[in-house]
Design goal:
Blueprint (H helix, E strand, L loop, with lengths): L11 E8 L7 E9 L5 E7 L8 H7 L3 H4 L5 H13 L2 E4 L3 H12 L8 E4 H8 L11 H8 L8 H19 L3 H6 L1
Parallel strand pairs: 1-4, 4-5
Antiparallel strand pairs: 1-2, 2-3
Length: 184
């Protein structure tokens, strides 16, 4: 069954990647969670063939290996379909890794790094739950437990959906939109 890339206009899109090895450009999975104006989430996940080695550590972390990506598009092919959607929206990542990995993968593929607008759901979570500092922190693993989120950690689509949920819960808790939370 082939997933369809969500269509339309969204409030924001959370994006997460998994990599084949410690090289940030080795993206082997991209997940997005598109948050509509009604706060409903449309999720999309695709494998990416990074055309590189997979480290044992990364395979154990996310369960993705060379067999999963052998018939998957490479990064440049995937960006043909994803870039028009991503370019029109504010992107949310959970920490700075995803933006860095996307930039490195664009560079490796010989593509210009797009001037996408990014924000970090860790910053948003810190504003909403300052009590977690030094008490489990603001990583997705702790937020999963502390906020009662249900998702499979280290699956790009699931992690993107979790980052989107963190933003939505923070907005609810603070009574303002994520862009206003970030301005403080």
């Amino acid at each position: 069954m082939t997933q369809q890339i969500p269509a339309g206009t969204f409030r924001f899109i959370a994006l997460d990647v998994e990599t084949a090895c410690s090289d940030a450009s080795s993206i082997c999975q991209i997940g997005i969670a598109c948050v509509g104006y009604d706060n409903q989430i449309q999720q999309y996940t695709t494998y990416i063939n990074p055309h590189c080695r997979f480290s044992r550590f990364n395979i154990q972390l996310h369960g993705i290996g060379p067999d999963h990506v052998v018939d998957a598009p490479d990064f440049a092919e995937a960006m043909i379909s994803l870039s028009p959607l991503l370019a029109r929206h504010h992107l949310i990542q959970h920490s700075s890794f995803d933006k860095r990995a996307m930039g490195a993968a664009h560079d490796l593929a010989g593509l210009s790094v797009p001037p996408w607008v990014w924000s970090d759901s860790v910053r948003i979570a810190r504003a909403a739950w300052p009590e977690f500092k030094g008490n489990g922190g603001h990583g997705l693993g702790h937020l999963k437990q502390a906020l009662g989120l249900e998702f499979t950690h280290h699956d790009a689509g699931e992690d993107a959906r979790a980052a989107a949920m963190v933003v939505l819960l923070a907005e609810e808790r603070l009574g303002r939109s994520f862009d206003l939370i970030l301005r403080r």
